[in-house]
Amino acid sequence: MSLPPEKASELKQIIHQQLVKMDVHGKIREVLAETIREELAPEHQQLSTEDLIKALRQRGIIDDVMKELKFVTNIDPTRRYLYLQVLGGKAFLEHLQEPEPLPGQICSTFTLCLHFRNQRFRSKPVPCACEPDFHDGFLLEVHKDSLGDGSKMVDATTMLSICDPVHIVLIRTDTFGETTLVASYFLEWRSVLAAENGITNVAVELLGVGTESKVSVGVLNIRLEMYPQLSKTLSPEVTNTQFALERQKTAEKERLFLVYAKQWWREYLQIRPTHNVRLVKIFAQDENGVNHPVCSYIRPLRAGRLLDTPRQAARFVSVLGYERAPVIGGGGGKQEQWCTLLAFLCRNKGDCEDHANLLCSLLLGFGLEAFVCVGTKAKGVPHTWVMTCGTDGTVTFWESLTGHRYIHRPINPDDPPLVEQPKPLYPYRTIGCIFNHQKFFGNCQPSDAVEVCVFDLHDESKWKPMSGEAIKSVCPPGTTSSVPPFPPLCASPIDAAITSNEIELQLRLLVSEHRKDLGLSTVWDDHLSYLLSPALAAYELERTTSISAGNEEFQDAVRRAVPDGHTFKGFPIHFVYRNARRAFATCLRSPFCEEIICCRGDQVRLAVRVRVFTYPESACAVWIMLACKYRS
């Protein structure tokens, strides 16, 4: 890209400042003096530029400069950037006793995930320790969005009105690859606008999540710097006044919404006293224990080119891991924790509410009328799922944990007994309310049983609506909500072919070892293993599209590969994690699978095929097929 002269000189200026900061000139002088002493004393020959560069390279100075300048040259001088450096952590007391990891030893790691104005970053994983060795820099573009004229450089006053925080999520990954959400923090970066030289250092105290949201987990040292440097900084009074005004405005909107919600709830209870036991959820707590209106957890989310259809979106959401929010102590109580989207995606797993919120947001992004439903499954277990309303009145339920879809046909309780009623296939029993980013309805039909529910949302005698204006006042785009903006989805970092091969090799070893312990030898049939591929592809296609295809060819190929008088047995199994040892343990618990792994007989040949299907983020569906053939 060619730069206008004034921008080129600005870039030169930035590079010059960077070199001064590193004291490069001082280092070159030292090397020059040393080289002259060592190499030139005898003949006083001329010192060429090449000699000097060689000497600088040997001492690693050129590498240091290039590392710094690589960062500088990423800067487009027509835009404003915030350079955020994480310079280590301290007081992560839970890891006080942790021994230093030996070189090459696998240990638990910390990773930081950042989101700011549609940009996402991830730090390098560092070993968990009391003082984790974070040393990462992130170049966040502040001025890129639809704010005015792209060629005009924003000044400090304009940036003060950009109230998006930097969302920082800390994830711990254990030695088995299991992830835990450690902390979720919203960094107010605008203090740098009032800092001298446009540089400020902050010590950020991270608090735990869920039941530990009041407990400190550790401190991060963060340095913030503006690029290019601001010509004029603001006074701390101005920035503090702005922050106070914003807090006041948000608090006032939330207070008014709370007043409205209480009034709505009183009216709802007046319709029928039994309504007080229905699952009508107006507020929910996030991972930091902060209450938000449920509507603010939903936003139309477009997946760019990462997902092509609503059903593919449902498949993606279903292969994100399911894990109930951890609760301390017994009693079977359910700890409530509706995660922010960044925390859910970075952890790669969450509760049913996280799945339903994400699926609803994606379906809205695909232009469907989608709602999250709050109700119960069998035995009165609270549950959330998604519903779409077609233009022809068709109501479809989507189970976000499995990707299954069910058409809803209500039973009419007033029909005479001989009239045949539809048999519901879905697992849902009762429904208390439905909501999306703009609407909220409380179910006020005589019964809250799903099977008799009529989804005529315009009939206020069946569904009591909340005021759209009230919802808009606390949910974007009408306002800056206290729930952060949604991050964009990222493409999968996983290489499907390499991962499939790795898991397959590990499984072969595990099967061979297991058979050896039983006194059995193992002979692998590579050709038969390869023939299992089409079946795995067909299973995944069926999960995504509900269409099965290609089964005839698979069966024909297997018949040809298994000679007369031989028996073939195959067993497919599906996982959403990539841990071969854990998958093998699960396989052994299945009687069919165990029968194949421990097969005895004449001319026994074993086969295994693994196929990993990747989805956005780190989500993946792992299909494994174990098979054997032997002489009957």
TrEMBL record:
Residue ranges of every copy of the CEP76 C2 domain listed in the record: 74-231
Keywords: Cytoplasm, Cytoskeleton
Single biological process term from Gene Ontology: regulation of centriole replication
Domain Centrosomal protein of 76 kDa C-terminal: 494-631
InterPro entries (UniProt xref): CEP76 (IPR052299), CEP76-C2 (IPR028926), CEP76_C (IPR056288), CEP76_N (IPR056289), CEPT76/DRC7_peptidase-like_dom (IPR056290), Papain-like_cys_pep_sf (IPR038765)
Compartments where located: Cytoplasm, Cytoskeleton, Microtubule organizing center, Centrosome, Centriole
Domain CEP76/DRC7 peptidase-like: 336-466
UniProt xrefs under SUPFAM superfamilies: Cysteine proteinases
Function according to Swiss-Prot or TrEMBL: Centrosomal protein involved in regulation of centriole duplication. Required to limit centriole duplication to once per cell cycle by preventing centriole reduplication.
Residues of the CEP76 N-terminal domain: 10-69
GO cellular component: centriole
Name of the protein in question: Centrosomal protein of 76 kDa
Family from the record: Belongs to the CEP76 family.
Main location (coarse class): cytoplasm
Pfam families: CEP76-C2, CEP76_C, CEP76_N, CEPT76_peptidase
